Amino acid sequence: MADGSSFYVTTPIFYVNDVPHIGHAYTEVATDVLARWHRQAGDDTWMLTGTDEHGQKILRTATANGVTPQEWADRLVSSAWLPLLQTVNIANDDFIRTTEPRHEENVQRFLQKLYDDGHIYTGEYEGHYCVGCEEYKQDADLVPGTGEYAGQEVCAIHSKPVELLQEKNYFFRMSAFTQRLLTLYEERPDFVQPESARNEVVSFVRQGLDDLSISRSTFDWGVKVPWDDSHVVYVWFDALLNYITAVGYGVDEEEFARRWPAHHIVGKDILRFHAVIWPAMLMAAGLDVPRGVFGHGWLLVGGEKMSKSKLTGIMPEHITDTFGSDAFRYYFLSAISFGSDGSFSWEDLSARYHAELANGFGNLASRIITMIERYCDGSVPSVAVLTDADAAISALEKTVTDASWQAINRCAIHEAIAAVWELVNALNGYLTTEQPWMLAKNPENRARLETVLAVAYHGLGTLAVLLSPILPTAAAKLWSALGAAGLVQEQRIDRAYQWSVGTRVAQLAGLFPRIEAVE
Ligand code: MSP
């Protein structure tokens, strides 16, 4: 990539029954970093996020709060879900709500096409439904309840009892796509990532797929089935379609051709919907399947998936109010290898903030800028004779630029950050060995002093470019302190080491101030 090709990336759309916690913000931030990185590499990038507003879960919450589901959704979107994007600094290109006409009308269009083409039939279903998951559960998905639910079978994800439902529904002949899906996983081994997620999906589909119940008639909060308005579309069938209704499916062929197919970033709990049901739906409609589905891990608290319903939810602003949005983004994406679960603790966050952001990077930046101000009157110095140590820094700038971009192309965000951090550490080591403050004491060392500061200055600019998808606020501040032209997010990240140096530095306020006490 990085040749102007299309990079369309999506987050899951979030249920509006409750406010966001840091698990939701994690999905947003990871997707945003991928989007910002690709955008800065010159790809034709589009990032979509949004909200999932239909279904029983939202209906029940709204009813319990004495408002209509639409009022409830409007309230939560404006008071919680849109503000989340500011809280963690998301640069999304679009935000879709499943109650918007652009979505609802094209869900109906899609469904009608499947119906006309014989992929849908009427049937009867009885099963255990988890409203938390909005999904019928197999016996294997249930576990014995504990506490108030002891003696009952509960959903393994929500730890709450399931409900026995029996309904006459419309069904999607998903079973007919079992073999085509297996061929897809075989031919495109990176369709589902990481490897562990792929294995889980493949062994699930190998057992053979059932048909999928795609309508409900016991409540009416959803998109009406176009040929039978006594039914509404099953909320997952409706929700998955957001990925195409948002980019012109059914109405704007040009836009659709430009964007689709997408890369989907999802939590591992909703992998099957994206890697099994969704491609089967697309195959039935004769559309391209996604470019890939990446299932990330969970943020754990006390060893369990953090969730509001289990009262372990931590709000993103609890972290950003103290540490800032850059630190939030950096911490979760560097400390957890993307694809694995990770535990959150305030101690770990605070320790990494101080060691890596405040001391490692922030201090490095302010030391270099301050020395150029002090020893060169703020004029950006130029290099004279290069030593091996100087050349090693320049070589590393190129190495980490390439390595981080390659890691991003594999969605290995933590590896990309680790590669960039090699340069942070190398520059710190370089200053320790070259000791420009000692060189400054003797005018005979003038040429060497300027070379050292010029090399350090150049490395710092490369860092600003490479870190701008992760630390957009700090990178922008650093970029103006470097006196570089334009905006840092406009610099080509796949050629970060080729940035054009400025002529004068400007004062740099502390990028990551020390934080004394964290509760
Ligand atoms: N509405 C569906 C998705 C429909 S996509 C067509 C949904 N919504 S959700 O609000 O429950 O979850 C949205 C995302 O947040 C999922 O990717 C989920 O994995 C993620 N997370 C929720 N809790 C999480 C953690 N504790 N840790 C990490 N991610 C978590 O599912």
Automatic annotation (TrEMBL):
It is found in: Cytoplasm. Keywords: Aminoacyl-tRNA synthetase, ATP-binding, Cytoplasm, Ligase, Metal-binding, Nucleotide-binding, Protein biosynthesis, Zinc. Binds 1 zinc ion per subunit. GO terms for molecular function: ATP binding; metal ion binding; methionine-tRNA ligase activity. Zn(2+) binds at C130, C133, C155, H158. A motif ('HIGH' region) lies at residues 14-24. Pfam families: Anticodon_1, tRNA-synt_1g. Residues 7-368 form the Methionyl/Leucyl tRNA synthetase domain. One of its GO terms (biological process) is methionyl-tRNA aminoacylation. This is Methionine--tRNA ligase. The lineage of its organism: Bacteria, Bacillati, Actinomycetota, Actinomycetes, Micrococcales. The gene is metG.
